[in-house]
Amino acid sequence: MSKYNIELVMNPNCSHTKILERIVANSIVLEFGPAHGVMSRYMKEQLGCQIYAVELDAEASEEASQYCKKIVVDSIETYSWQNEFINLQFDYIIFADVLEHLYDPWKVLREVKTFLKPDGHILISLPNIANNAI
């Protein structure tokens, strides 16, 4: 079992909850690193969103794919997702505890912002090593 295969707990102090509370129903969302699709499932089933995703882990992506219109199985930093989503514009782009795993997160952010709608938002969470749960 993957350490990223977790249950979604809607706790007001959880970063995933804080991100999900910002998503407006029926939005078009690009989620980087959905793992097994816990947040994707919530956005699709509870908010009626269209989810697109990029996930490195092929096994995890199989589970997440049931909640996504399209999922690209590849490293974010190969930028293959750019070709796959070239004609799409997103209301939200999510990096939930993902950017800290990248070699050049600044480049990824520069590239991805061109996929935002004019009033779109990039939502990011980063783990806090000072948190005693870690």
Description:
With 134 residues, this protein is α/β, with parallel strands linked by helices. The protein has helices at residues 15-20, 38-45, 58-64, 80-84, 105-112; strands at 28-32, 50-55, 70-73, 90-96, 116-125. The chain has a five-stranded parallel β-sheet with strand order 3-2-1-4-5. The mean pLDDT is 89.
Classification by helices and strands: alpha/beta
Poorly predicted runs: none
Number of helices: 5
Summarize the helix and strand pattern as letters: HEHEHEHEHE
The number of distinct β-strands equals 5
Roughly what fraction of the amino acids lie in strands? 15-25%
What would a concise description of this structure say?
The protein is an alpha/beta fold. About 25% of the residues lie in helices and about 25% in strands.
Write the layout of secondary structure elements.
Layout (H helix, E strand, L loop, with lengths): L14 H6 L7 E5 L5 H8 L4 E6 L2 H7 L5 E4 L6 H5 L5 E7 L8 H8 L3 E10 L9
Parallel strand pairs: 1-2, 1-4, 2-3, 4-5
